[in-house]
Structure to design on (250 residues):
């Protein structure tokens, strides 16, 4: 298969390198990723500035790679429109440096790049692991991505679905298995701290801590128990459970 790889951590990030190193053993790969860090950009796209594309050499890898001066969603659009030489079969986004669990999927550039692929009519997989993971754990995560791709192809993953995969940052022998589950509600105890003043302006930085979701049968719960989680996502955010009720209001 021909796969387009992208991320939100930048083209030189360790996660996308590990992913490309593993997947190019089996597939034809092209890497199109942001030129630098673009985490938490969600599904933003660049509309008021030109995009700059550069060919990049990733030492030790045979696959073609390009950097884009835009967002993860830009990278998918640019890759599919201008950089691929034949049809892409699937888009893989990651391996993100940091889990994308619960409501983090709404902020994630990694997940949004995969969602952009589905808007372009392609199935996609987003994959993440803990931000403190060792390099070897990214390699482990990449091997599991290969397995997920095989299952997705065998079962004809629809072209409007993203499989959001989170791999716990533990040694392979301690991973308990795989759970297909719903997302939870990941929250943060966040606040802004005034760091300094410049002229008449105030400068603030975002600080805080994560409040881990412990609700059973959710992605955050199972990752905490040592399972790889897979959550099918779709871009239709309609709340169907109250659609009829709201219709009655009007």
């Amino acid at each position: 298969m021909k796969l387009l790889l992208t991320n939100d951590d930048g083209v030189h990030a360790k996660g996308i390198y590990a992913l490309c190193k593993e997947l190019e053993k089996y597939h034809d790969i092209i890497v199109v990723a942001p030129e630098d860090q673009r985490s938490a950009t969600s599904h933003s796209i660049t509309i008021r500035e030109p995009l700059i594309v550069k060919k990049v050499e990733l030492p030790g890898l045979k696959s073609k790679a390009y950097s884009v001066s835009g967002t993860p969603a830009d990278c998918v659009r640019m890759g599919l429109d201008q950089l691929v030489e034949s049809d892409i079969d699937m888009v893989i986004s990651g391996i993100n440096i940091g889990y994308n669990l619960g409501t983090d999927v709404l902020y994630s550039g990694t997940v949004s790049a995969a969602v952009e692929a589905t808007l372009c009519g392609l199935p996609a997989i987003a994959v993440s692991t803990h931000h403190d993971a060792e390099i070897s754990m990214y390699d482990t995560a990449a091997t599991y991505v290969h397995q997920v791709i095989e299952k997705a192809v065998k079962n004809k993953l629809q072209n409007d679905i993203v499989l959001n995969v989170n791999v716990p940052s533990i040694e392979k022998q301690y991973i308990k298995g795989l759970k297909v589950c719903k997302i939870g509600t990941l929250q943060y105890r966040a606040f802004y701290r005034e760091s300094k003043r410049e002229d008449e302006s105030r400068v603030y930085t975002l600080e805080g801590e994560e409040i881990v979701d412990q609700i059973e049968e959710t992605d955050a719960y199972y990752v905490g128990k040592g399972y790889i989680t897979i959550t099918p996502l779709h871009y239709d955010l309609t709340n169907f459970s109250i659609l009829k009720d709201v219709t009655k209001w009007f």
Q: What stands out?
A: Residues 2-183+216-236 form a domain with the Stationary-phase Survival Protein Sure Homolog; Chain: A, fold (CATH 3.40.1210.10). Helices lie at 14-23, 72-83, 109-119, 135-154, 219-224, 243-249. The longest strand covers residues 187-198. The longest helix spans residues 135-154.
